[in-house]
Amino acid sequence: MSNYPALIEAQSLVLAGDIAGAEHALANLAETEGDKALVAALDEFPAKDLLAIIREYDASKESLVNLLVTPEQFAQAVVLERRYGDQTHEQLRGMINSVIFRDGADPAEFLYEIAEVDGGYDALVDYLLDRAQMVEHFYRYATFDLYEYGDDNKTRALEDDLLNLTRDTESLASPLDMANLEDHDWMQVTYILRYELPEIFREVLMKLRARYKAYQASLAQDELEGGEGAEEEQDERPKNNDDGDDKDDDEESAL
């Protein structure tokens, strides 16, 4: 039994589909017992229920849960996002951006913790999936502009070098470069992964390449078949080939 009645109330409200009410119950806990009490309480809150609240972010208002959730708590929740079946991953991107780029947060710490959780690399791949070509181009030429090939003074990365990509082999890009990429979105995430978390970036890019290759092969097959099988309507994005195990009953979607 939880030491925080607000948690029990919030869980019941999530189960009933009242996400706003659940968030309000947690906010009341912070107001009555302080922010630290809420952070401690979230350690006892099921990741699937935390996700149900965080993914309902509203850019027009601040969410106390989004502002206080720790990197470890957030990572446990975010890897469950794909169970909602959102093939566009728009909810995932908005949710991640709203938390890791909050005032005073260290985005690299959040990204590191996401990668540490089983299924975390797949979540990061989902986040970058629609930008696969530009992420690849940035890796090779240190620019997102597909019509430019970077600064000749910078070492151009070759595909064979990816396996050797580590923090020891990489130097940080200039502060000016970083300032130009502070979009609080996928470009900044890619930059942070590339220069601050290169080992994680290496794994994400290898997975991203595999998913993008499968996507292209699927398109080619569709063209050969002349659009046959259209009765099975499918999203044109690469499939979610999750490496994780979805068998845990206690972590079923809150839907």
Brief summary:
The protein is mostly helical. Helices cover 55% and strands 0% of the residues. The chain is globular, with a radius of gyration of 20 Å.
Chain-wise SSE layout:
Layout: H1 5-15, H2 19-33, H3 35-42, H4 47-54, H5 64-68, H6 71-78, H7 90-100, H8 107-116, H9 120-128, H10 132-141, H11 175-180, H12 186-196, H13 198-224
Helix pairs in contact: 1-2, 2-3, 4-6, 6-8, 7-9, 8-9, 9-13, 12-13
Q: Can you put this structure into words, describing what you see?
A:
With 255 residues, the protein is mainly α. The chain has 2 domains: 1-69; 70-222, no CATH class. The chain has helices at residues 5-15, 19-33, 35-42, 47-54, 64-68, 71-78, 90-100, 107-116, 120-128, 132-141, 175-180, 186-196, 198-224. Helix 2 crosses helix 3. The longest helix is centred in the C-terminal third of the chain and has 27 residues, at 198-224. Residues 152-160 and 244-255 have low confidence and may be disordered.
